Amino acid sequence: MAKFEEPEGIGNEVATPAEGQGQDGGGVPVQPRAEMVVVLAQQGLARNEIARRTGISTATVSRIAKANGITFDRARMERPLKARIHDLKVAQAGIAEGLQEDVAVARMLLRTARTHRDYAFASKAISDLTQAVQRMTPEVTQEDALEETKDFLLGLREDMQAARQAFETEHGIPLGSPEATRLHRKALGLDGNNEQP
Fold it and tell me: Are the CB atoms for 195 and 181 separated by under 8 Å?
């Protein structure tokens, strides 16, 4: 990708907002290149990735980001990076599934082969495709499994906290109170004569 000409100074990329404009008093982009850097940085891309995608030097990316109050915090960049890696693994798994379908087609060709040449061709195709499927199937490491479990549990905790808050807001009583238990039992139809203390 061809590099854009780097500006002499940051002045032609970022301008200070006029009085009453801008929320944090920082500069606002006035050039498309600066806008591009700001948008990509807000999406969570790292400085080097922005420079690679836009053809702008990392130094200029840093100056534009700084002028707009954007920092490249490693912890903030980690989540979007994990999401992109996850997306790549999903795409890789999709390719592996498509290759498995091709293996099934090659097996059918092997079964219906009428000549030695067709049989050899189908056998070779099955071998090559099977190897490709093995290479393209993403490995699930123990670390990946633990990370998925952790994400699931964190999401579950957030959902439970939201449900608790919604219940307490709606009914005005704590979820663990005896009143809440009676409400739950009544909603489940368990408040009959056989109710146990």
Answer: no
